[in-house]
């Protein structure tokens, strides 16, 4: 099913009104595809299990809150050291699975009083 979904796509690039030859997409999920979100969650499931096994980050009762959405994952922690461990785990996963983490698309958002925040440079 997944292979068939990819095989019927013939992507190309349009530049200055000209179309390139079509090419195969060898990695990733189709943007806007009906299965894309679920395929992404299946792909990162072992990462989420590893993050949960570390027993760090935010949980609601017994539910770990490393929340995958589309092609994003929200990491939530009140402890900078725990957050760094989660980031290191994701970095290892990305290297093992030949994924890129885009620094310009990655953000750290601090909540709470400013006196508890510190900035690493």
UniProtKB/TrEMBL annotation:
Domain Reverse transcriptase: 1-121
Organism, as annotated: Mytilus galloprovincialis
Lineage: Eukaryota, Metazoa, Spiralia, Lophotrochozoa, Mollusca
Domain of life, source organism: Eukaryota
Family matches, as Pfam families: RVT_1
UniProt xrefs under InterPro entries: RT_dom (IPR000477)
Protein name: Reverse transcriptase domain-containing protein
PROSITE patterns listed in its UniProt record: RT_POL
């Amino acid at each position: 099913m997944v292979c068939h979904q990819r095989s019927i796509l013939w992507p190309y690039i349009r530049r200055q009104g000209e179309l390139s030859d079509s090419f195969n997409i060898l990695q990733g999920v189709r943007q806007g595809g009906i299965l894309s979100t679920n395929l992404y969650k299946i792909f990162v499931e072992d990462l989420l299990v590893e993050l949960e096994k570390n027993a760090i980050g935010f949980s609601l009762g017994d539910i770990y809150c490393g929340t995958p959405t589309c092609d994003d994952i929200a990491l939530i922690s009140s402890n900078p050291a725990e957050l760094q461990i989660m980031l290191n785990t994701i970095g290892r996963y990305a290297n093992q699975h030949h994924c890129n983490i885009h620094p310009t698309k990655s953000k750290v958002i601090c909540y709470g009083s400013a006196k508890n925040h510190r900035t690493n440079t």
